[in-house]
Design brief:
Length: 233
């Protein structure tokens, strides 16, 4: 696993990073390639994931995360670059608050947003962390996540496996007063160049303004924005 620093846990963590950098892998492959016990490999990979050094693809494989890129030279996140061009346009079309979420373990994180200049807004600050158990953004990220992860959150979720099946079939999700009373939202998956879902783009606002079926109103514009994000990636 390379040179030894004399700090065992550090050497093992670096070994995990090196293996994943060579080729994304799941837990079984990670154990085989590092020689680490299953519990140790899982603990290290999850810890590195929490710091953004690894991220997990929807099929449960770890790959290098954005923190490594930032530390290597401060190069911008291509998803954030795409969001800076696409989200304001979606906000202008809908007149509502727009967010971009990325899953981080058992939470989703708002990594970009665009707010209308006036009127009642659903302000979600960048960096805000929310559970993966409620809201249209959570449904989208769960629907295209590792099936084992999706099953693990369902007991506490406001949605069911059947709902996730419908989300995958339809291509978008909606929610009414799930995350917060009086707020409705609709979300769609954002895919990278390989077709993997890497984020969820959302439109949200007061129920009395966007209605109890926000997908009927905004799904087409949302899907177009998701496609524009993918093209920029």
């Amino acid at each position: 696993m390379g040179q030894s620093s004399g700090i065992g846990v550090l050497d093992k963590a670096v070994g995990v990073l090196r293996v994943v950098a060579e080729e994304p892998c799941g837990l079984t492959e990670l154990c085989e390639r590092t020689g680490l016990p299953r519990a140790t490999a899982h603990r290290l990979a999850v810890g590195l994931e929490a710091h953004g050094m690894l991220v997990r693809t929807p099929d449960g494989r770890w790959r290098p995360g954005p923190t490594l890129t930032e530390l290597a030279g401060g190069r911008p996140d291509p998803l954030l670059d795409a969001a800076s061009a696409v989200l304001p346009r979606l906000r202008d079309i809908t007149g509502e608050s727009v967010q971009l979420y990325r899953r981080d373990g058992v939470q989703r994180v708002c990594i970009a947003s665009a707010e209308p200049p006036v009127g009642l807004r659903d302000t979600v600050p960048v960096g805000a962390r929310m559970p993966m158990t409620a809201g249209s953004g959570a449904k989208v990220l769960a629907a295209w996540s590792d099936p084992a992860f999706a099953r693990s959150i369902l007991p506490e979720a406001t949605f069911s496996e059947r709902v996730l099946v419908d989300v995958r079939r339809r291509g978008w999700a909606q929610s009414v007063a799930e995350r917060e009373p009086g707020v409705a939202s609709v979300s769609a998956p954002v895919r990278d160049s390989a077709g993997q879902v890497v984020a969820a783009v959302s439109v949200s606002g007061p129920v009395e303004r966007i209605g109890r079926r926000p997908g009927v109103r905004w799904a087409a514009d949302l899907l177009a924005a998701a496609e524009a994000l993918q093209h920029r990636l």
